[in-house]
Design goal:
Largest sheet: 4 strands, mixed
Structural class: alpha+beta
Strand content: 25-35%
Strand order of the largest sheet: 1-2-4-3
Number of domains: 2
Shape: elongated
Number of strands: 4
Length: 125
């Protein structure tokens, strides 16, 4: 009889701890309340143009995605997330989710798609 109570108590405590863990885990993956896409004009330069200080490159439009964790009544902190040579990947998405769950807005800048670039892993030019 006493053994059964002890087992039930451990099961109850385990259930409560599991629910707390699940609640924390789901809050870490909270979805932003508002997402806005913002186009940005940019100038794409060749390596030579960049190194010689010229600015007569090709005009392009890239975009960024602003993710707001709530509808703020006052200014809130924001982080600009830039991708690497592989483009936007799940890691960038995960950082955005984590920061949004902390009440921080994120702006994910995609500097490849508007320029017709998929990745620069093999060719950095």
């Amino acid at each position: 009889m006493e053994g059964q109570r002890l087992v039930r108590r451990y099961l109850f405590v385990g259930l409560v701890l599991s629910l707390v863990y699940i609640a924390q885990a789901t809050s870490a993956f909270a979805q932003p309340i508002r997402i806005e896409v913002h186009p940005l004009r940019t100038n794409t330069l060749t390596d030579q143009q960049f190194l010689t200080g010229k600015s007569d490159g090709r005009d392009d439009i890239i975009a960024g995605e602003l993710r707001l964790p709530g509808l703020p009544a006052s200014p809130l902190p924001a982080v600009v997330l830039l991708h690497g040579s592989g483009g936007i990947n799940p890691g960038v998405e995960r950082w955005s989710q984590e920061l949004n769950s902390m009440g921080v807005a994120t702006f994910i800048l995609d500097s490849f798609t508007g320029r017709g670039i998929r990745d620069t892993v093999a060719d950095q030019s």
